[in-house]
Design brief:
This protein is an alpha/beta fold. Helix content is 38%, strand content 17%. Strands 2-1-3-4-6-5-8-7 form an 8-stranded mixed β-sheet, sandwiched between helices. α7 (176-188) links the parallel β5 and β6 (193-198). The longest helix has 15 residues, at 23-37. It is globular and about 65 Å long. The protein starts with a helix and ends in a 5-residue tail after the last helix. The structure holds thiamine diphosphate, iron/sulfur cluster (SF4) and magnesium ion. Residues 51, 93-95, 122, 124-126, 133 line the site of magnesium ion. Keywords: Oxidoreductase. It holds the Pfam family TPP_enzyme_C. InterPro entries: 2-oxoacid:Fd_oxidoreductase (IPR051457), THDP-binding (IPR029061), TPP_enzyme_TPP-bd (IPR011766). Residues 50-196 form the Thiamine pyrophosphate enzyme TPP-binding domain.
């Protein structure tokens, strides 16, 4: 880990994450995936919006952008169109990606642009003190829902798939090794890839939901998830109520930047 720290992290401590926050585990999973793939640091750009999770690129030694709340994907789209040979990774919170940035999320998925989006899903607006997000579970407590959240949560994976994402995966900070392997696969996938990283926020979510200890949040992830492979061996009643983790969807489809380049060529008088 020390080598990874020297190579991929900026010497910028202390960081702003609370003790027991899962964001460091997700960020390390991304770094390990990048290292495993041997990506060129000068050709890897990491973009984020605003939130606790969105602070991650600031700690990483790549070309990084910390943009506006919910707007990381439009910035990343511009970068990918201008520099098609760059790997572009977007880090977003659940609120960032599916509330204020929900529109950008579905349209990036629809376009199938070759960007990898990692959603740090802590089920809450962490940075601003625990307001509910579209991924806060039904009847979970939030500062804006002290009696429980009556809204039903999105299933991020289904939302991504329905909007056209061609790679969709989910894992947790408890399953950090699997999470890193899925991030690596997502980066290699040509098209819009989404990885939901379930992560614990003991301060803004856990304290309101009887999981103030970081270990309680990890135990929740362990006890409420099941791998796609294990679920395939069980009948539906045995899997009911569990959250599926692993590679959930993968398909090949025309990629946006490649298709756009063909249109540019045609407009310049060439053949398509
Ligand atoms: C346009 C705009 N609206 C609202 C905010 C305030 N704000 C900052 S972070 C945030 C929510 C962050 O939640 P999430 O995306 O889930 O990230 P987390 O902090 O949980 O990692 C909000 C509402 C803002 N910075 N900009
Ligand atoms: S508020 Fe939650 S998500 Fe934000 S740094 Fe603290 S523990 Fe992490
Ligand atoms: Mg959040």
């Amino acid at each position: 880990m020390e080598e990874l720290l020297k190579k991929y992290y900026r010497p910028k401590l202390p960081h702003m994450w609370c003790p027991g926050c899962g964001n460091g585990i997700v960020t390390a999973a991304i770094v390990k995936a990048i290292d495993k793939l041997g990506l060129d640091q000068d050709k890897t750009t990491i973009v984020s919006g605003i939130g606790c999770s969105s602070r991650a690129p600031g700690y990483l030694h790549f070309d990084t952008l910390h943009t506006a709340h919910g707007r990381a994907l439009p910035f990343a789209t511009g970068i990918k169109l201008a520099k098609p040979d760059h790997k572009v990774i977007v880090i977003s919170g659940d609120g960032d990606a599916t509330a204020i940035g929900g529109n950008h999320f579905i349209h990036a998925a629809r376009r199938n642009i070759d960007i990898t989006l990692i959603v740090y899903n802590n089920n809450i607006y962490g940075m601003t003190g625990g307001q509910y997000s579209p991924l806060t579970p039904h009847m979970a407590k939030a500062t804006t829902a002290p009696y429980g959240n009556v809204d039903r949560a999105f299933d991020l994976a289904q939302l991504a798939k329905g909007a056209g994402a061609t790679f969709v995966a989910r894992s947790t900070t408890y399953h950090a090794k699997q999470l890193s392997e899925l991030v690596a696969k997502a980066i290699l996938h040509e098209g819009f890839s989404v990885v939901e990283a379930m992560t614990g926020c003991p301060i803004s979510f856990g304290r309101q939901n009887k999981m103030a200890k970081p270990a309680a949040l990890l135990a929740w992830q362990r006890d409420n998830t099941i791998t796609v492979e294990a679920a395939a061996k069980l009948n539906p009643e045995q899997v009911a109520g569990k959250i599926l983790i692993g590679l959930l969807h993968e398909e090949a489809a025309p990629e946006y930047v490649t298709e756009y380049a063909k249109v540019i060529k045609q407009a310049m008088g060439g053949e398509r």
